[in-house]
Amino acid sequence: MEIWINPACSKCRSAVDLLDAEGAAYTVRRYLEDVPSRDEIRAVLERLGLEPWDITRTQEADAKELGLKEWPREAGSRERWIEALAAHPKLIQRPIITADDGTAVVGRTDEAVRDALGR
Q1: Per-domain residue ranges for the chain?
Q2: What per-residue confidence (pLDDT) applies to 65?
Q3: Chain centre to alpha carbon of residue 43
Q4: How far is residue 59's CA from residue 65's CA, in Å, rounded to a whole number?
């Protein structure tokens, strides 16, 4: 199990605290420092069963500067979104937990983190 975190994020810290309390074995990836490649973003999207716009933090300054709210949310624009996430990792929703069964969750709630633990 791996968790993508920003240590400054309270949701990330809560998720890590819960994983620790449950005695889970996991690896921390500080994704702002160890930026995921486009291929890694594609892989995590597949594991999540989501599209890139589903995990994009559209209220971030970078998102506003790029005008992401106006970008089409369709298959033809998918790579453009992935490129933006790779170039601006702050835009990636957090934390993302990749479960041992090959799936993943966005662990913003205790329930989502527990869901990942149960996989």
Answers
A1: 2-117
A2: 96
A3: 11
A4: 10
pTM of the model: 0.93
* Model confidence at 119: pLDDT above 90: no
Q: CB–CB of 60/16 below 8 Å?
A: no
Beta pairing partners, 3: 28, 97
Residue 100 has pLDDT above 90, yes or no: no
Domain 2-117, CATH: 3.40.30.10
Q: What is the pLDDT of residues 38-97, one digit of tens each?
A: 999 999 999 999 999 999 999 999 999 999 999 999 999 999 999 999 999 999 999 999
Catalytic site positions: 9
**DSSP per-residue codes, the chain:** -EEEE-TT-HHHHHHHHHHHHTT---EEEETTTSPPPHHHHHHHHHHHT--GGGGB-TTSHHHHHHTGGGS--SGGGHHHHHHHHHH-GGGB-S-EEE-TTS-EEE--SHHHHHHHHT-
| 20 closest CA partner among 36, 35, 34, 3 | 3
